[in-house]
TrEMBL record:
Name of the featured protein: Aminotransferase class I/II-fold pyridoxal phosphate-dependent enzyme
Lineage per the UniProt record: Bacteria, Pseudomonadati, Myxococcota, Polyangia, Polyangiales
Key words of the record: Aminotransferase, Pyridoxal phosphate, Transferase
PANTHER family listed in its UniProt record: CYSTATHIONINE GAMMA-LYASE, TRANS-SULFURATION ENZYME FAMILY MEMBER
Pfam families registered for this protein in UniProt: Cys_Met_Meta_PP
GO function terms (MF aspect): transaminase activity
Family: Belongs to the trans-sulfuration enzymes family.
Required co-factors: pyridoxal 5'-phosphate
């Protein structure tokens, strides 16, 4: 419903609020039904005119979720997966043994562990680089051998921002594809395809759903083609498909995406600015702070805010950081991010001994509570 019958165009928040303006043709329901069926009737002449055969390939409940993500990202096609990891690994599993990929030094830990473990055992060759430095990306790309450059921006959990346009230019000049994990930015703040990326991935478990009650992932392609069809085949072959109830909940969550992300971004900036001069705080990592090393790229690439995620290094090392986390009450000590409730986590405890994350770092996912309440809770936890 980018255009209605009068030809008017709508802003993305209007499109999200009405989940594309879907109305059921038969019942006039404005909320779509859930289709639990795993199998579909074959026509008497042995054809499948509906295009539906079996539930490991797709499900009618996906259609609205996929179409809405496609619209918000400005892409050509989207696919829904069982989780963000299922979406991301489907891209790598659609490459061939011997293919070279360039991945960031700082990125979602489980995915980096998969690429450098099982991914390499399956024949991928990965170069791990500092993505905030385009010269390092250029040096790592092997012309005609590098098939994929993986970007995550802002990158979990240090929130460095990658220049998508510059990395895409370098990758495309060498014949490589670019996929951006845009989980923390969301289509509200960054649209990677408009900056030149080929694919955008989300852990829809996070902001897209936004209520910490669905595991799902999405991929969106700037254009369809052979590689996209390979990814589609991978999803069906591996069975990394979302459940229909999750797809339905995801559409419901995405209707409030813009309100949630804007509220969280506003509070996160206030919290970052409050904590930066705090005597118990060593440093604050947040793309919206002018002191942040990649702030200039963030200011150009992110529109309407810098996201709800920040990290804080606490003076006094790991013990002090864990103590601060133990003293909060409104913030919840839990992993994950992008929900309406604020979460705090001692990140290196989650990533384990090989993690590059400083041991004095707390990762904060800002929800939609009153910023003053969140700040007061942090202040009392930091006192002493
Ligand atoms: C959570 C997350 C993932 C993995 O998503 P799941 O839904 O947990 O499988 C990937 N990338 C980022 C940035 C994430 O935060």
């Amino acid at each position: 419903m980018r255009h209605d019958s009068t030809g008017r165009t709508f802003a993305p928040e209007s499109i999200a609020a009405q989940a594309l303006g879907w109305v059921d043709a038969e019942t006039r329901a404005i909320v779509s039904p859930i289709h639990p069926s795993t199998t579909f009737l074959r026509d008497p002449d042995n054809q499948y005119r509906s295009g539906r055969v079996y539930g490991r390939s797709d499900n009618p409940t996906f259609d609205q979720a996929e179409a809405l993500v496609t619209s918000l990202e400005g892409g050509a096609s989207s696919m829904l997966f069982a989780s963000g990891m299922a979406a991301a690994t489907a891209v790598f599993l659609s490459l061939s043994p011997g293919d070279h990929v360039v991945v960031p030094e700082v990125m979602y830990w489980s995915l980096r562990s998969w690429i450098c473990g099982p991914g390499e055992r399956l024949g991928l060759r990965a170069s791990v680089v500092d993505m905030s430095n385009p010269e390092k990306v250029a040096a790592a790309i092997e012309p005609d051998k590098t098939r994929l450059v993986w970007v995550e921006t802002p990158a979990n959990p240090l929130w460095g921002v990658t220049d998508i346009a510059e990395v895409s230019r370098l990758a495309h000049a060498a014949g490589a594809l670019v996929c951006v994990d845009s989980t923390s930015a969301t289509p509200v703040l960054t649209r990677p395809l408009a900056w030149g990326a080929d694919f955008v991935m989300h852990s829809a478990t996070k902001y897209l759903n936004g209520h910490s009650d669905v595991l799902a992932g999405t991929l969106t392609a700037a254009r369809t083609g052979e590689f996209w069809e390979r990814v589609r085949a991978t999803r069906s072959q591996v069975g990394s498909i979302a459940g229909p109830f999750e797809a339905w909940l995801l559409v419901r969550g995405m209707r409030t995406l813009f309100l949630r992300v804007r509220a969280a971004s506003k509070s996160a900036l206030a919290i970052a600015e409050h904590l930066e001069p705090h005597p118990r705080v060593l440093s604050v990592m947040y793309p919206g702070l002018s002191s942040f090393p990649t702030h200039v790229v963030a200011a150009r690439q992110m529109d309407g805010g810098f996201g709800g995620m920040l990290s804080v290094r606490i003076r006094g090392g790991e013990e002090a950081a864990v103590r601060v986390a133990s003293r909060v009450s409104l913030w919840k000590r839990a992993t994950s991010l992008g929900g309406v409730e604020s979460l705090i986590e001692h990140r290196s405890s989650v990533e384990g001994p090989d993690s590059p994350v400083p041991r004095d770092l707390l990762r904060l996912s800002v929800g939609i509570e009153a910023a003053a309440d969140l700040i007061a809770d942090l202040d009392q936890a930091l006192a002493l």
